[in-house]
Amino acid sequence: MLICPNCSLDVSNSSSLPCDACQKPLHLKCIGLSENDVKWTRSKSKAVKVVCSNCNNNISQFKDLKSTIAALQNEIATSITNLRADFEAKLNDLQISINKQSDRFEDIVTEVTERQNRKQNLIMFGVDEQQVELDQVHSSERDQSSVKDILKCINPSFDDDNIKIQRLGRRSDTKARPIKIILRNDLEVLSFIKNAKTLRNSPEHKKVSISFDKTPRQIDYYKQVKNDMIIRLNNGETNLRIRHVNGIPKIVKSLN
Predict the structure, then answer these.
(1) By its UniProt entry, which InterPro entries does this protein fall under (predicted)?
(2) b/e sequence 87-126, b meaning 16+ C-beta within 10 Å
(3) Rounded to two decimals, what is the model's pTM?
(4) pLDDT, tens digit, 9 for 90 and up, residues 1-54
(5) What is the DSSP pairing of strand 25-27 with strand 16-18?
């Protein structure tokens, strides 16, 4: 017995048409067609399809599923595009950060090397310089003699043999250039810096001062610390001074 899926009745003795989806027989009356309608539609177009109610529901659900899948595919494609763009942006930021860190590392290495090279140097200010330019030999000998006298004033037992000196910068008609003094090691530098206050008691050398041979970055940092101290003093703090702790200038409270 053949059962129509639309009405669930026997179609054995009735005019029927197979469902184009499941091939089950359908009463013509269940699909609203006459035999002439069937002949006419079949002769005119094979594209006209007849389906039962069950298959029609399945086809609708299938179409909905296809639409859902297509929407999900579009959503996934959009997400992948956005993720790729975000990944590429973050990768680019990371590369920029790595390059900056690499440049910063190179700067640090260069600064450390430069400071190491300057550790055994002193810079001396206020040493008179002949305004009438002498030949290089006589000018150097005069500076050598002046520097040795000043160092002996600070430390009378200092062995001044083989020290090297050099005027820094261009000659000026109004101001003596500082002198770079190359000592044997950084301990001698620290000793002279520590005892440089003895120059204040020397009538001949009281205008002379000495300093570490600082890099431009150290000079800038010292200026910053000095400005910070001035601001604090202007705000009412007292007894502040700059003290070098492990070679780094810091603002400290004076005990006096």
Answers:
(1) Znf_FYVE_PHD, Znf_RING/FYVE/PHD
(2) eeeeeeeeeeeeeeeeeeeeeeeeeeeebeebebbbbbeb
(3) 0.57
(4) 788 888 888 888 888 888 888 888 888 888 777 777 766 666 555 556 777 888
(5) antiparallel
